[in-house]
Every structure is written in C-alpha cells, then in structure tokens.
C-alpha cells in the first residue's frame, strides 16, 4: 500500500525532461473486465490498470461469482467468462466513484436480472444516472432509486425485457450509451436491438472505444453515424483469448503538457498513433499552443521552445484531458477559452467551479460560464495551496503549476490531499518527480 502525505509540496522546477511509462487505460481496463466476464471463454488481460476504479470493478465481478486471477504480482489478469450469466443472483456492490463501473454494470445486471444494489462514495450519489435508468426501465427492467430520484444508490430486481428499439439521451454522459451498447447483446433474442440517441451526444470518442472492444469480443454493431446503433441477432461475446491494455491517454496529458510548458522533451510510452482512445487528440491542442509533438505507434514526445500560445477551442471530444489545457493556459501569451465542457459539472466534482477557484489562487483571472472557462494568465504564478476536491485530475493537472521559473525559485505549489490520484494513477507524483527538474535554476 502506498503511503500518502496529507499534502505534497512541489518545488518550483525549471525544466521538464525524461520518459514515463504510462499505467493502463482506465476506459479500456474496465470495459475489458466486464466484457471478459460476460464472454464465453477465458481472457488473459495484459497491463490492466491498477487503481481504485479498476479495483471496484474487479471486486464487483468477484462478488457476482466471476472467477478471475492475478498472475503473481503483475498486472496480468485471467478472467473466466461466465457466458452471459452471473453465478450470484443477489449482491450489494460498492462502486466507489467509478463511472466506468457503475454505468455499464447497472445495464448488464438489470438485463441479466437478479437482486442487486449498487452504491458508491457520497459524490457518486450526486452523479446523474437517470437517463440510463429511464432507457432501461422503458424496455422492462426493474431499477429503482433507494435515495434521490435520478441518482445512485440503485436497487435492481428481475424484470421482463422486451427490447427491440430503445432510446437514450446523450447530452449528460456518453457512458449511458456505452452501458446500453455493452448490455445489448444480452438482450438480443430473435430480433435485433436498436438504440437511438436522443439529442446531442457528448464525449463521442468514448463510444468508439466501446465499439472497438465489443468487436474484439465478437460483437459487431451496425451504426448510423452517432444517431442509431444496432446489434444484429446471432452475436454473443466470445473471448479473443488475450487483450493488451494500452497506456492511458488522459494520464499522458500531464506529462506531455509538462514537456510543452517547460521545454521537454518529455516522452510517454504506451500510447501513440495506434491508440483507440480519443484523448490522444490532446496533442492537437498542444500543437495549437505551439508545442512540437512527435508520435510513434506506441509513444509520444512533446517539447517546445518558448511561451505557449493562447487557445480558443471546443473540448467536448476530450473532456478529461481538457483539464490539463486549463492549467497549461497559465503559461500562454493571452486569454484562452475552453468551450463546450458542461459535463465537467457532473464528474468527480464540479470541475468548472473547482478549476476556476484554484486557478485564481495562482493569480489567473477566470471567467466561468455554464459550459465554458475563460482564463487570463497571471504575469507571474503565485505560490498557493491547491485544494483537490477528491478529484484525481485536479491533483494531477495542478502539479503543472510548479513548472518553470514563473513560480519563483524556492516557492512551492502545495497539493492538498494528493492521495485522490489513486482513482486512476496511484504513482502519479513519483513519475512527475522524475521529469520535473528543480536542480537547473
Ligand atoms: O466511457 C468512458 O470511459 C469515459 C467517458 C467520459 O465520461 P462522459 O461520457 O460522462 O463525458 C470520461 O469523462 C470518463 O472519464 C471516461
Ligand atoms: C470523469 C472521470 O471518471 P468516471 O469514469 O468516473 O466518469 C474521469 O476519470 O475524469
């Protein structure tokens, strides 16, 4: 178990340089675990992410009677698929604050049927799930709320499914559509199942990850753009045998931004041109800000030679990595605007409010809108104690404020409650210490 201090003081660092091997992708890890559990056959998973979010998924699967083993002390796991059934019909499942666990599991459990409760940390009980529950109950599942309507905790009972066509709203979280897509092959009887998206779909690239992994497990979804998705009859999940989890592209964003802010080169290993994660497109935003990016199949390098340019862009397609841009904007030559990021308000914390509050502590002027942030950088970044709101990404992206001489030598950026990084990246600060050079002033 890692020991975490109450707070962490990051010394001002003049340069960022070096190489980081990324932990596994959270989005790929949790999807792969669930698909492997639902599949026919055994799946060997390489480089699974070790973190709170994957831990809750592994524990839930164990409680549901799915057999899995960790190979020694490695991140290799073997999951014995139960072929669309779950051996345990009654369970109380703790989901932490993992959206990628509770949303897909809710759909799968409601469709398979049983007597299950799902709950999490207090913030999880403030994160909406009503659009998913409405879509499922409309086809005959029996999901009810034990607390506030529209939010976990949930109680699932056995229903009678009559799925041919279903509808889901896509403007609060793409994870609702992901959950329905992953559960759809379990609903297919004699007729195909079609899911229609109502209104605008946000965070679209995450749907590509879902479809890609379903395909690897033998289910090919037919689609009409982002509007409608059909799972034909005669398909079920079959294990591909092995799956290698890519490095996490959202986790890569902090190190790549460090290379852009403080010279670089910084190299991340584990994601590159071949990635199926939308967050690799974070590098396009860094390039717009003036960084130089080079990419191989499985690695990315970021470097720069001077002040970053301000950016004004739509970040709906990369909501997680966009937080890194908000902090990089402290180093830009003018006012930056991050648009179309309303989903930030319903994640680990209200990220628009939290980001505005903490950027102001560093001296930035910040305008906060319902779905945007406008950031005017300070002449000089002030030393400050940053609150992290139990949000791993707040802790990780604010570490970047310790870079370059803009924080005067000897000043520190204090990160309060750094242990929250365990949600997706328990060793984050160890890797950051290796690339942040404070011996070069
Ligand atoms: O499907 C996924 O793996 C995810 C989808 C995104 O959520 P939204 O669709 O709610 O934006 C993202 O923020 C989250 O970290 C992971
Ligand atoms: C929004 C996030 O997580 P979740 O999968 O819990 O939605 C995130 O990791 O930034």
From TrEMBL:
GO BP terms: amino acid biosynthetic process; aromatic amino acid family biosynthetic process; chorismate biosynthetic process
GO cellular component annotations of the record: cytoplasm
Name of one Pfam family that matches: EPSP_synthase
Chief site of localization: cytoplasm
Record-linked NCBIfam families: aroA
Protein name from the UniProt record: 3-phosphoshikimate 1-carboxyvinyltransferase
Species this protein is from: Noviherbaspirillum cavernae
Catalytic activity, as annotated: 3-phosphoshikimate + phosphoenolpyruvate = 5-O-(1-carboxyvinyl)-3-phosphoshikimate + phosphate
Record's subunit section: Monomer.
Record: active site: 320 (proton acceptor)
Residues where 3-phosphoshikimate binds: 26-27, 31, 173-175, 203, 320, 347
EC number: 2.5.1.19
């Amino acid at each position: 178990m890692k020991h975490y201090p109450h707070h962490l003081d990051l010394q001002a660092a003049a340069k960022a340089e070096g190489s980081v091997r990324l932990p596994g992708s959270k989005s790929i890890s949790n999807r792969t675990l669930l698909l492997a559990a639902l599949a026919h056959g055994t799946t060997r998973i390489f480089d699974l992410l070790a973190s709170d979010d994957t831990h809750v998924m592994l524990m839930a699967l164990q409680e549901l009677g799915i057999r899995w083993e960790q190979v020694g002390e490695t991140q290799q796991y073997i999951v014995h698929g139960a072929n669309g059934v779950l051996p345990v019909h009654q369970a109380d499942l703790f989901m932490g604050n993992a959206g990628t666990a509770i949303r897909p599991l809710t759909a799968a459990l409601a469709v398979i049927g049983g007597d299950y409760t799902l709950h999490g940390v207090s913030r999880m009980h403030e994160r909406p799930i009503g659009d998913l529950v409405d879509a499922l109950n409309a086809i005959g599942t029996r999901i009810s709320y034990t607390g506030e309507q529209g939010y976990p905790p949930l109680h699932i009972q056995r229903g009678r499914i009559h799925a041919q066509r279903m509808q889901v709203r896509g403007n609060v979280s793409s994870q609702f559509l992901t959950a329905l897509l992953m559960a759809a092959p379990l609903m297919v009887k004699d007729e195909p199942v079609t899911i229609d998206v109502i209104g605008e779909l946000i965070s679209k690239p995450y749907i590509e990850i879902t479809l890609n992994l379903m395909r690897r497990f033998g289910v090919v979804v037919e689609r009409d753009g982002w509007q409608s998705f059909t799972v034909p009859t005669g398909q079920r999940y079959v294990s591909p045998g092995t799956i290698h989890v890519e490095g996490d592209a959202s986790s890569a964003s902090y190190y790549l931004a460090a290379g852009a802010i403080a010279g670089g080169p910084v190299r991340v290993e584990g994601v590159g041109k071949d990635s199926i994660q939308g967050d690799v497109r974070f590098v396009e935003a860094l390039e717009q800000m003036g960084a130089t990016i080079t990419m191989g199949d499985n690695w990315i390098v970021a470097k720069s030679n001077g002040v970053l340019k301000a950016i004004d862009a739509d970040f709906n397609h990369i909501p997680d990595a966009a937080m890194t841009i908000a902090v990089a904007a402290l180093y830009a030559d003018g006012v930056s605007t991050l648009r179309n990021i309303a989903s930030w308000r319903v994640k680990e914390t209200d990220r628009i409010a939290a980001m505005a509050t903490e950027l102001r502590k560093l001296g930035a002027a910040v305008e906060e809108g319902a779905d945007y942030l406008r950031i005017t950088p300070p002449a000089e970044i002030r030393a400050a104690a940053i609150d992290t709101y139990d949000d791993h990404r707040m802790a990780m992206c604010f570490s970047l404020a310790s870079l370059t001489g803009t924080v005067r030598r000897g000043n520190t950026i204090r990160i309060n409650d750094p242990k929250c990084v365990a949600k997706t990246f328990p060793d984050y600060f160890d890797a950051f210490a290796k690339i942040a050079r404070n011996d070069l002033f």
